[in-house]
Amino acid sequence: MASSFSDAVKRLLVGRPFRSEDRRAPALKKRIAMPVFASDMLSSVAYAPDEILLALSLTSLVALTVAPWIGVAVGAVILVIVACYRINVKAYPSGGGDYEVASKNLGPRAGLVVAAALLVDYVLTLAVSMTVFAAYITTAFPLLAPYRVAVAIIGILLITLAGLRGSRATPVLLAVPTYLFLGAVFLTMCVGLLRVGTGDLPQAETADYTVVHTGVNDEATLGLATVLIVLRAFSSGSVALAGVQTVATAVPAFKKPRGKNAGNTLLLSGLLAALMLTGLTYLASVTGVKYVDDPHLYLMRPDGSAVSAEYEQEPVLAQLAHAIFDNAPVMFYLVVLVAALVLIVAANTAVEGFPGLASRLARDGFLPRQLATKGDRLTFSNGILLLAFAAILLVIATRASATTLIQLYLVGVFASFVVGQAGMVLHWNKRLRLVIDSKARVRMHLNRLVNGAGCIIASGVLLVVIVSKFLAGAWLAVAAMAGLFLIMGAIHRHYSRVARELAPEADGGSRTIPSNTHAIVVVNEINKPTLRALSYARVARSSQLEAITVAVDEDSAGALQRQWNEMALPVPLTVLDSPYRELLRPLLAHVLAIRRRSPRDLVIVYIPQFIVGRWWEHILHNQVALKLRTRLLLVPNVVVVSVPWRLRSFSRQYDGDGPDNDNPLYRQA
Prior knowledge:
Blueprint: H1 2-14, H2 30-37, H3 39-43, H4 48-56, H5 63-91, H6 97-106, H7 108-140, H8 148-165, H9 170-197, E1 210-211, H10 219-237, H11 244-249, H12 258-286, H13 295-298, E2 299-300, H14 316-324, H15 329-363, H16 381-398, H17 402-432, H18 438-502, E3 517-522, H19 528-539, E4 544-551, H20 554-567, E5 573-577, H21 584-597, E6 602-611, H22 617-620, H23 623-632, E7 638-646, H24 648-654
Parallel strand pairs: 3-4, 3-6, 4-5, 6-7
Antiparallel strand pairs: 1-2
Helix pairs in contact: 2-9, 4-5, 4-10, 4-12, 5-10, 5-12, 5-18, 6-7, 6-17, 7-8, 7-15, 7-16, 7-17, 7-18, 8-15, 8-16, 9-12, 9-14, 9-15, 10-18, 14-15, 15-16, 17-18
């Protein structure tokens, strides 16, 4: 009953299973692939300006003048990295991304470093997207503000359910929010820039607020602190680069020519992301948007009073929408809700990417092989569930703080960039040694130059991220990557060791037939399951056959022996003494004694077992059989055979052929 109920719930939530030939993922055109696979990069502008202003809020000296230039700098880095990955996807169109590039050119250890970084990034992509999603939802509906963690978790669960269902209409449905988001952001930018150009400068709600700073009087210290703050703001804004790898790993989903289409999609997405980030940071600067870590501590009202404990800080994009569309409040809700929708699409890229990468790693022997198989709906359901579990833990641990999660986010992003681009440089070095065509060599030299520049820039950003954010939480990401690297290495060594042990021997020694077989039937009482086990054991025609019972109670053992003799069963019954009323120890000792006398013999132990249909019946039966089977499986050259007897509860539960009471085998014992 319990199993049928769980199956019904599963079918209600997930849907009917797909046959393997039922679903062939269609190749996507660029206009659909771009909003689906690049949604992570595009949606990052919903929180990247927040991180830039948050870092600059530590000092008021540079906030207004530097913020737009940081946006420009991050936009330039986006374009450089996009140029690198355009080369990557054409050179490696199979969709392996940085993992494939690093593994083939730098070796499996470098591939593992990239894999660990990407796995951490996918988890953080889901956690960050849903945390920012919760921030936008609570901005539109302030009554939900106390339940931000719950909103984020509900979002993760909904994304997980959609991933498990694997709907065929998903790509088209996911494309709509991304295009709406692009339209909303560009409309906000155009209206805002128009108002700035016409002198109708809108003011953000927080423009007259004051940010509280810690006093630094020494000019040298102030200058150094300002440089560090600017570098930290730049590294925070670099979160807009997250998601570049998503397109690189999704190349097989594009229509042919896949590499070219994926490269063009990357270029268009990078241009859009850079333009939106630059425009939003400029508008945030001129409208006076304030965004701080803890508004209750660092933000003061125009009258000099601290903001109340109930004050909820709006995201930068929401503050801009409020200011720019001050005469059309409905536009504020439209921008905020569309931003929330695109974050759901961005979270879906993690649900697609993490299980796919985990499956590839499992096939390569670096993760448990259960992650390599597809579920009922032709999705990597085990990987999706693992991803959701890890993301929910992060959301709970950080109390749905996007800033805290983003501190963990950037290390893995740029670590994979650095290793991947270094691998591409080696890739071109190898190709140049094999190619003599002058035009091809010029193109390869140019590609190597671009990948080398990308490697250097990514290394610089990674250094800035580690230096500026290490104590703020980046060390946790480093520790997680190192832990994953060690775990995957240990799993690979285990699988390799097992494969070596299980490989057939060249001399055919593993095909040697045992000298003799010694069959033992475990008897507790004479009943139908016991008689069936005796019948099966006799049919196997072992060299020796005996029935064994343990005299836990002398009177019961005597009664069993008399009944055995009266039924004239054609198998000798051996009664094992048990002075301490133990059941398992005498049986194990008897089996081990046979093994010592005849080490080359095969011992087959037949254990009668009830098959029940109700969950609570499992508690009442088969406990001794389970313990005995578990212990015997550890003894070399011992085979354990469970002989089932299905009770009526099982037959009714599973609509079988009825109880096993008409089978003639047990009568022939």
